[in-house]
Design a protein that fits this description.
The chain has one domain (about 10-135): RbsD-like fold. It has five helices and six strands; from the N terminus they run H-E-H-E-H-E-H-E-H-E-E. It has helices spanning about 10-20, 35-40, 50-55, 85-95, 110-115, and strands spanning about 25-30, 40-45, 70-75, 105, 120-125, 135.
Length: about 140
């Protein structure tokens, strides 16, 4: 256990976040996401909701300011989108990065293709549909 780091951030996830460079992306995937089939390294955070992981990651992780830093899957025609998913995530994002824009929405297959090129996928315990979120890392400011 380390001081100042959420107990929900595993040692493996902490190492991945540290190794990521500017512009690298990480998927916080819902429990239904085909993360292991897509190719990038996969970490497990079973039972942990994405909102909880976001609250642990964002104090450690600068969001990109040159490109959309948040990406979510768009709803498939005929499905219903629960607006509470995005609003729950944005409540956490705004606490840590008040200027962050709303997530860019990608069509389902485009989201999967984007996920194939990410640095890592974190399989979470998020059960809500369309709960997947890609974070793009920015440049950490010098304090």
């Amino acid at each position: 256990m380390l001081k100042g780091i959420s107990p929900f951030i595993s040692p493996d996830l902490l190492a991945v976040l540290h190794r990521m460079g500017h512009g690298d992306e990480i998927v916080l995937a819902d429990a239904h996401f085909p993360g292991h089939a897509l190719g990038p390294q996969v970490l497990r955070a079973d039972g942990i909701p994405i909102r909880t992981l976001l609250d642990g990651i964002l104090p450690l992780f600068e969001l990109d300011s040159y490109a959309p830093p948040l990406i979510m899957m768009d709803v498939v025609p005929g499905d219903a989108l629960d607006p509470a998913v995005e609003s729950d995530y944005m409540e956490v994002v705004r606490r840590h990065a008040p200027a962050a824009p709303k997530p860019l929405r990608l069509e389902r297959q485009a989201f999967y293709e984007r996920a194939r090129t990410t640095f890592a996928v974190v399989m979470t315990g998020e059960l809500r549909k369309y709960g997947n979120l890609i974070l793009k890392k920015g440049v950490t400011p010098i304090s």
